[in-house]
Specification:
Blueprint lengths: L11 H12 L5 H9 L5 E6 L8 H5 L5 E7 L5 E3 L12 E6 L32 E5 L5 H11 L4 E7 L18 E7 L5 H7 L6 E4 L8 H22 L4 E6 L3 H6 L6 E4 H14 L2 H10 L5 E6 L9 E3 H10 L3 E6 L13 E3 L6 E3 L5 E6 L2
């Protein structure tokens, strides 16, 4: 009431639940968010689009060597991320771009030469099938996580929650009736107990999320229980000779280095992500709407898709070819992830945002292209 339009509201629990729901279905996404939010790397900026009035968004995508346009900010309206390529830039429109700094956004005519058609690849159709998701542990964000998963999961999917009895009082009761795409199964048990994990048959699940029990434990104890659960899961995987996707929520960034011993596919350091988002929005209030749009299942979200669906693999290609291949599919490319570097923290676990268009990169079968897309 006091701040009126000057106040930007960030619902931390919902933000983390949405990031967790997206991340558990595609490894590496939390690193992308952290890179976008962290002031030390490439960030999201708004810049004038006056030089591009009358031109299309598709033209703008290739007009920068060292910046990545991702959408438009229309006067009097919210952001339009990944608009259709034929969208015409109008008076007063501003570009939403990813760049190393606001003084690195140089405008001008197209700087990308024509891409060799022989470098582009056709996407491989993949049938959608029901998914099985396992959530181990419980905190106040868990109901929102289950609801968010329901907005992404294919029809006929299931989510199994293994949590202490106290979880029944925290929002599980009646949650199943609200779900449309997936069924809900609840088991009352200690999710850090090895015998419980052995009995679950964790190898049959497509995605596993380990939540920190932050509602009744302090930070160090909650992260310690998460670490124990991760170690058990990886030992089970090793004994069975199987590999399955594991995403873990952590509270303290300092515990991440220790948790990497357990080789989770992704980590969500919830308090850090929330703090970074608050800091970014305090610098530019329009970013709140941008991130809200990205995190909303409606419209375009961030996806990590097989690089082989965009360009040829096992030979050097200019990153501009990736941008062009994505543009033809109605998507906006913002970077890539090298799978072989997924455990190397000094190179952001293989995530490279906003590479130069003229940079050469050699993709392999497991590498991913990072795009804004509707599905």
């Amino acid at each position: 009431m006091v701040g009126r339009d000057e106040v930007e509201l960030i619902l931390a629990g919902d933000v983390i639940a949405r990031i967790a729901a997206q991340t558990c279905r595609q490894s590496g996404l939390s690193i992308v968010y952290q890179e976008l939010l962290d002031f030390s790397g490439d960030e999201i900026y708004m810049t004038s689009a006056d030089d591009f009035q009358g031109r299309s968004y598709g033209d703008v995508i290739t007009a920068f060597v060292d910046a990545s346009p991702i959408g438009l900010l229309v006067p009097g309206g919210g952001p339009r991320l990944n608009p259709p390529a034929d969208t015409v830039i109008g008076p007063g429109d501003r570009l939403v771009v990813i760049a190393a700094d606001d003084d690195r956004i140089t405008r001008g005519a197209s700087t990308v030469n024509a891409v060799d058609e022989a470098l582009l690849a056709m996407p491989v159709p993949r049938a959608e099938r029901p998914e099985r998701t396992l959530i181990l542990g419980w905190n106040r964000r868990a109901p929102a996580l289950v609801r968010e998963l329901d907005r992404y999961a294919p029809a006929g999917s299931t989510v199994t929650v293994v949590a202490p009895a106290a979880a029944d009082d925290a929002g599980l009761a009646g949650l199943g009736a609200l779900l449309v795409r997936q069924g809900l199964e609840v088991r009352t048990a200690d999710s850090a107990d090895r015998s419980v994990l052995d009995a679950l048959g964790v190898e049959v699940f497509d995605h596993i999320v380990v939540l920190c029990e932050s509602d009744h434990l302090d930070v160090s104890r909650a992260d310690a229980r998460t670490l124990i659960t991760l170690l058990h899961l990886r030992d089970i995987a090793s004994r069975l000779g199987r590999d399955f996707s594991i995403v873990s929520e952590m509270l303290d960034l300092r515990d991440r280095a220790l948790a990497e011993v357990a080789r989770a596919d992704d980590f969500i350091v919830s308090d850090r992500l929330t703090s970074l988002m608050i800091a970014q929005v305090s610098e530019n209030k329009h970013l709140n709407a941008v991130f809200a749009d990205i995190l909303d299942p409606e419209g375009s979200e961030i996806y990590l898709k097989p690089a082989a669906d965009y360009v040829v693999t096992d030979r050097p290609v200019p990153y501009a070819a990736v941008v062009e291949a994505a543009r033809r599919r109605g998507e906006t490319a913002i970077g890539y992830r090298i799978a072989a570097q997924h455990e190397e923290s000094d190179v952001a676990y293989g995530v490279r945002l906003n590479p130069r268009k003229d940079a050469m990169v050699t993709f392999e079968a497991d590498d991913r292209v990072i795009v804004l897309a509707e599905d």
